[in-house]
Amino acid sequence: MSMIVDRKSARVAGLVYLVMIVTTGLWYGIGQTFMGLDPAATVARLQSNRTVFELAILSGAIGFVDFLVLGLLLYRLFSSVGEGAARMMLAFMAVSVPLSLGSVARQMDALSLLDSGRTLTGLPIDQLIAVALQGYTNLFLVSSIFSGLWLIPFGWLVLRSRFLPRTVGVLLLSGSVFYVLAFVGTVMNPQYGSTRVAQVVGVVSGVPAILGELGACIWLLMARAPRRGMAIVS
């Protein structure tokens, strides 16, 4: 498949990809430290680590807007390889962004409830905050459907393009299963994350997903020399 690649555009896409990985990773990592606690302990942790939680919210907002920009840049890079697949990739990425930002908004709801200091609908504040944070988790799980689906056309485009190593494309395709099953498994079994199936899927599909995305990011940043069937514009 013939592909003309703008080296500068590829590097910009790689940089945007890297920012997305760092910011959304920070958002998810910090957010998870406030989960799995009883309501009173959750409130206590929010009060003592409010600045960290606010940093997570900002990181998430930046990261998910950045993800939309990444979609546009990748579409521009790979549309010559397969217009239909590139459009599908961009559509999946675009749909995931408002869902992910909705998850961030639920975290903001938790802070608003913490600041209000009043009971609403007859429930204590700590229970309402716990409900808000559960809403954050649920929205994030729904968005994971598209976090997996966009990797399918992206992986296919990588395989066809010859711009990135074919191994990266295979890893991306394999990793898509991890995200989709995170949603399906949790709906079917709320304790899915602690099951043996989840552990196996995490190794078989989750690890390839991480390696594939990191590989794509690094390769775009490097924008290596052209291969046969591909031209690179400086």
Question: How is this structure best described in words?
Answer:
The chain is mostly helical. It has one domain. Helix content is 79%, strand content 3%. The chain has eight helices and two strands. It has helices at residues 7-32, 39-48, 50-78, 83-116, 125-149, 151-161, 166-188, 196-222; strands at residues 3-6, 230-233. It has a two-stranded parallel sheet with strand order 1-2. Helix 3 packs antiparallel against helix 4 (83-116). It is globular and about 60 Å long. The relative contact order is 0.15.
List the helices and strands and how they pair.
Elements: E1 3-6, H1 7-32, H2 39-48, H3 50-78, H4 83-116, H5 125-149, H6 151-161, H7 166-188, H8 196-222, E2 230-233
Parallel strand pairs: 1-2
Helix pairs in contact: 1-3, 1-8, 2-5, 3-4, 4-5, 4-6, 5-7, 6-7, 7-8
- End-to-end Cα distance, whole Å, is 20 Å
What radius of gyration results from the CA coordinates? Answer: 20 Å
* Mean pLDDT across all amino acids: 88
Number of helices: 8
Report the principal-axis shape. Answer: globular
Question: Which class of secondary structure composition applies to the elements?
Answer: mainly alpha
Order of helices and strands: EHHHHHHHHE
Strand line-up across the major sheet: 1-2
Helix coverage percent: over 70%
List unreliable stretches of 5+ residues: 225-234
- Major β-sheet annotation: 2 strands, parallel
Strand content: under 5%
Total count of strands:
2
Number of domains: 1
